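PROTEIN DESIGN WORKSHEET
SECTION A - STRUCTURE
LENGTH: 306
C-ALPHA CELLS:
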C-alpha cells in the first residue's frame, strides 16, 4: 500500500547489526550512500534515501539500525527501526552467516502485521554460503523468496533485482488519489452530499472535501448538490455527469434518481479504494439487485456497504 503521495516505492532494509544492511544499499545503488563499518551498531537511526536501483528505477530506501541491539539506547533504536515498517511498500530481511532465529521471526511477524511484502536476502555469501538447514528453517515459517547475495562481490545481483521487483506491489507506483484512474480531465463529476442534522456545522466531512479537491486536481469539473436538488439539476440542465458520488446513507435514494447508465459510487467507497486493499473491501460489499459492474473492479452502479 502506498503511503503519502510519493510515487517511488519505499523499500526498508531490516536485520541484525552487522549483517551488511548499509553495504547492501551501497551495492544495489552502486554508490557509497550509506556508512559501513565492522562495528556493530553503525547505523543508529532510520536513514531514508532517495535512490536509483539498477533495473528498478527511483525508489526510497530506508536503512535501519540492527534489531538485535541491547541496552536502553539499543531498545530505542530497535523501536525506531520497527516503527518504519508500516510505511514500507516492500521489506528486505537481511541475514548473514545462516543466522535465522528469534530476531528474524520477530521481524517477519511485524511485516505480516502491517501487510508489508518482504523477501529474505542471505548476505555475505562470499564468506558463508546459505545452508540447506537454514533454507529448511525459513521455509517452515514463510514462503517468501530467499536470495543469496554478497554486498562485497555483488554476486546474484540479477536474481536479487528480479526478486525485489517481484515483491514490490503495483500499488507502490500508483499515486494515492481518490479518483485516480476513474476520472479524466474535463469530466463532470456530480457530488451529492446530504446536508442533514448530522452534518457538521458550516463545513463538509473529509471524504467530501477530498473528492472536491481530487476532481480539481484532475482538471475535472465538480457539481456539488444536495440529494434534494440532484434530480432537478439533471432534468433542467440536461448535463450528464461522468460519475456521481454520494454518501452511503443516501445511496438508496440517489440510486433511484440517477439514470442507470451513470456510474454511481460512494465517498467512503472511493476512500476505501484509495486506502486499499480494495479487493478485500469489495468482498464485503453488497450490491443492490439492479447493480452492474462498470469498470472491472473499480466501482459499481450502485453499491452499498454492508
Ligand atoms: N565478506 C563480506 N562482508 C560484508 C558483506 N556485506 C557487508 N560486509 C561487512 O560487514 C560489516 C558490516 O557491514 P554494514 O553494512 O555496516 O552492516 P550493517 O548491517 O549496516 O550494520 P549496522 O549498521 O551496525 O547494523 C562491514 O565490515 C562490511 O564491510 C558481504 O557481502 N561480504
Ligand atoms: Mg548499517
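SECTION B - SEQUENCE
RESIDUE ASSIGNMENT:
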Amino acid at each position: 500500500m502506498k503511503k503519502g503521495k510519493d510515487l517511488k516505492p519505499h523499500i526498508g532494509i531490516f536485520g541484525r547489526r552487522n549483517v551488511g544492511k548499509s553495504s547492501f544499499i551501497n551495492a544495489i545503488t552502486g554508490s557509497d550512500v550509506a556508512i559501513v563499518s565492522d562495528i556493530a551498531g553503525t547505523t543508529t537511526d532510520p536513514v531514508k534515501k532517495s535512490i536509483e536501483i539498477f533495473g528498478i528505477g527511483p525508489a526510497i530506501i530506508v536503512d535501519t539500525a540492527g534489531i538485535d541491539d541491547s541496552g536502553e539506547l539499543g531498545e530505542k533504536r530497535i523501536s525506531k527501526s520497527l516503527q518504519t515498517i508500516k510505511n514500507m511498500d516492500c521489506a528486505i530481511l537481511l541475514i548473514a552467516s545462516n543466522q535465522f532465529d528469534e530476531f528474524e521471526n520477530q521481524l517477519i511477524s511485524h511485516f505480516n502485521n502491517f501487510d508489508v511484502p518482504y523477501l529474505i536476502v542471505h548476505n555475505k555469501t562470499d564468506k558463508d554460503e546459505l545452508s540447506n538447514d537454514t533454507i529448511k528453517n525459513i521455509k517452515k515459517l514463510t514462503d517468501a523468496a530467499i536470495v543469496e547475495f554478497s554486498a562485497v562481490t555483488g554476486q546474484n545481483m540479477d536474481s536479487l533485482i528480479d526478486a525485489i521487483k517481484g515483491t514490490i506491489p503495483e500499488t507502490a507506483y500508483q499515486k494515492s488519489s481518490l479518483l485516480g484512474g476513474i476520472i479524466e480531465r474535463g469530466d463532470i463529476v456530480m457530488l451529492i452530499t446530504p446536508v442533514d442534522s448530522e452534518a457538521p456545522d458550516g463545513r463538509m466531512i473529509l471524504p467530501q472535501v477530498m473528492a472536491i479537491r481530487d476532481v480539481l486536481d484532475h482538471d475535472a469539473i465538480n457539481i456539488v448538490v444536495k440529494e434534494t436538488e440532484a434530480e432537478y439539476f439533471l432534468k433542467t440542465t440536461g448535463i450528464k455527469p461522468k460519475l456521481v458520488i454520494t454518501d452511503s446513507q443516501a445511496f438508496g435514494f440517489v440510486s433511484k434518481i440517477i439514470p442507470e447508465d451513470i456510474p454511481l459510487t460512494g465517498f467512503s467507497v472511493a476512500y476505501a479504494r484509495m486506502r486499499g486493499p480494495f479487493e478485500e473491501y469489495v468482498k464485503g460489499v453488497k450490491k443492490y439487485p439492479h447493480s452492474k459492474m462498470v469498470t472491472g473492479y473499480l466501482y459499481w452502479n450502485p453499491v452499498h456497504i454492508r
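SECTION C - NOTES
Residues 1-5, 288-306 have pLDDT under 50 and may be disordered.
Residues 10-173 form a domain with the Rossmann fold fold (CATH 3.40.50.300).
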